[in-house]
Specification:
Blueprint (H helix, E strand, L loop, with lengths): L1 H8 L3 H13 L7 H13 L3 H13 L7 H11 L2 H11 L4 H24 L3
């Protein structure tokens, strides 16, 4: 567990996802949904697709945060994971056209910013 935490604190997205999973399921640490979401969120911000899926699902259900269909849609869209499609279908049934457009614009903006950060970091 110590090595997961050290790697996660060094902003290694895969380690952040592993640490989040441990907190989510109580593996080697006390079960803590808020800590799990925090680590998933950090990995999602680094572009990790599985973490983006987990963050989208958390916003969909309102797990350890307020339910937010627009944020849920943004993260599920960014994820691109096969499982995100079923969540998007269910979510889009509850959203109006204005909300859908806003979520799409947020995802596009995030993607542009992420690509710009990656280029400036030499990635």
């Amino acid at each position: 567990m110590r090595w997961y935490r050290r790697a996660a604190e060094q902003d290694l997205a895969a380690a952040q996802v592993n640490l989040a999973y441990c907190h989510e399921h109580g593996r080697g640490v006390a079960k803590d949904e808020a800590a799990a979401l925090m680590w998933y969120r950090r990995a999602a911000e680094h572009g990790h697709p599985q973490a983006q899926l987990r963050v989208g699902i958390a916003y969909f259900h309102g797990q350890s945060l307020d339910r937010d269909p627009i944020e849920a849609h943004k993260w599920l869209t960014l994820s691109g994971e096969p499982a995100s499609k079923q969540w998007l279908v269910a979510l889009e049934k509850t959203m109006g056209p204005t909300q859908l457009r806003r979520a799409e614009l947020m995802a596009q903006s995030w993607r542009r910013d992420f690509e710009a950060r990656s280029e400036s970091a030499g990635g």
